[in-house]
Amino acid sequence: RRFVKGFSSIASPLTTLTQKKAKFIWSEKCEKSFQELKDRLTSTSVLTLPKGTEVFVVYCDASRNGLGCALMQNGKVIAYASR
C-alpha cells in the first residue's frame, strides 16, 4: 500500500470482492485494477538506489510452494524477488 500512490482507490474493485457478503464476480473493472496494481508494483519507479552507509533489512516469507523476499532500506524497497 505504501509503495503505490492511490493504492486504495485503484484496488477498490478488488477490495469489494473480499467483503463478507459480496459475491465473487471478476469483472472488467477488477481485471483492470489488478493489471494496474501489478504494473505499478513491478515497475522500476518503485525501487530506490541503496545507500552504502545505511542499514539494510531483508523481509522474507516461504512456504512449500514458494518464496518471496524484499531488500529494504529506510522503509524503501531496493530489490525484491519471488520463486
Automatic annotation (TrEMBL):
Keyword field contains Isomerase: no
Molecular function terms, GO-annotated: catalytic activity
Tagged with keyword DNA damage: no
InterPro entries, sorted: DNA/RNA_pol_sf (IPR043502), Retrovirus_Pol_polyprotein (IPR050951), Rev_trsase/Diguanyl_cyclase (IPR043128), RT_RNaseH_2 (IPR041577)
Segments forming a coiled coil: none
Record-linked Pfam families: RT_RNaseH_2
Gene3D superfamilies: 3.30.70.270
Location of the Reverse transcriptase/retrotransposon-derived protein RNase H-like domain: 26-83
Protein name: Reverse transcriptase/retrotransposon-derived protein RNase H-like domain-containing protein
Keywords carried by this UniProt record: Multifunctional enzyme
Source organism, top-level taxon: Eukaryota
